[in-house]
Amino acid sequence: MQKEHNLSKNQKIIFDLIDKSGGPMKAYSILFNVQKKGIKAPLQVYRALDKLVEIGKIHKIESRNAFIACQNSSCQISKATAFSICESCENVSEISNSKLSKYLSNFSDESGMKYSKYNLEFFGLCKKCKSK
Amino acid sequence: MQKEHNLSKNQKIIFDLIDKSGGPMKAYSILFNVQKKGIKAPLQVYRALDKLVEIGKIHKIESRNAFIACQNSSCQISKATAFSICESCENVSEISNSKLSKYLSNFSDESGMKYSKYNLEFFGLCKKCKSK
DNA sequence: AACATTATGTAATAATATAACATTTAGAAG
DNA sequence: CTTCTAAATGTTATATTATTACATAATGTT
Ligand SMILES: [Zn+2]
Ligand SMILES: [Zn+2]
Ligand SMILES: [Zn+2]
Ligand SMILES: [Zn+2]
User: Hey, which of A82, A83, A110, B6 would disulfide with A120, CB 3.0 to 4.6 Å?
Assistant: First the structure.
């Protein structure tokens, strides 16, 4: 069962925007879109984004400096994330594959380092773009 | 056998700097360090970095906006990269594990998308930092 | 009510990265 | 060696992404 986080006003505005967009959004594009709702400064956006990432409602796509709503209901915390990214249309989707996540969560090498978190980004062409 | 790329003057200066540093370096720190060698503008650095990434001599650590020399001689092209990152001391090392790379290179899901590239970043505490 | 924690507002600035344009260098082809 | 082309360089300006610093307000706990 997922803990309910009561989002604050700004967090809710920003989460709803990202969630409705259905794809990754960049911070300044978010800012532009929420200015009519009274959020005027970059910092207000980044603070909400930080919190939303922390509680796992959104994830950051590192290679794109963009943020996407979590598409995986079992993903309480952004500790183990995997995405597929189309290099042509920039479509992004979260990969939810239990074998993969099990494999990576249990991964360890000879360095003696125990990993508590990972982020994986796959790149390629999506179905649509491949058939063009 | 790895194709020898003849690095240009700027590419060589910048690769040597990153390689000797032994860790990840950020673009503007690189710029600062090579100004005595005549490289004066960000763009000169970014162009060399782009090329070095393209030919696999360095990789970008996306979550850190930093660049590290390839530590894996068999890694001609930056198509399949994995790193371990200490969240305390920020030490980064390239993971070269054939099982892992085989697993990820062959990974496919039900989306019908075939992946040509991936980047994986593991986070945790390194041995040193764990024992503190 | 008192206190601590979290969130907000605002301005300024830092850090990261690219656009546009002119010129030069290095290879390949004839 | 000359012509052509692709790659690399130099330079200025600017765009994009993110944080510091400081003041205030809202929320939750004891
Ligand atoms: Zn998720
Ligand atoms: Zn696509
Ligand atoms: Zn490598
Ligand atoms: Zn460490």
Answer: A82
Q: Is A48 in the same domain as A26?
A: yes
Say whether both B58 and B89 belong to one domain.
no
CATH of the domain at B98: 3.30.1490.190
CB B49 within 8 A of CB B58: yes
Instruction: Give B82-115 pLDDT, tens digit per residue.
Output: 999 999 999 999 999 999 999 999 999 888 898 9
A81 CA, D26 C1': Å apart = 33
- The DSSP output letter for B10 is H
DSSP per residue over B61-97, as a string? EGGGTEEEE---TT--STTEEEEEEETTT--EEE---
Q: Which residues of B touch A122 (CB under 8 A)?
A: 107, 113, 115, 117-118
Q: A52-100 pLDDT, tens per residue?
A: 999 999 999 999 999 999 998 756 667 999 999 999 999 999 999 999 9
* Residue A65: domain span: 9-69
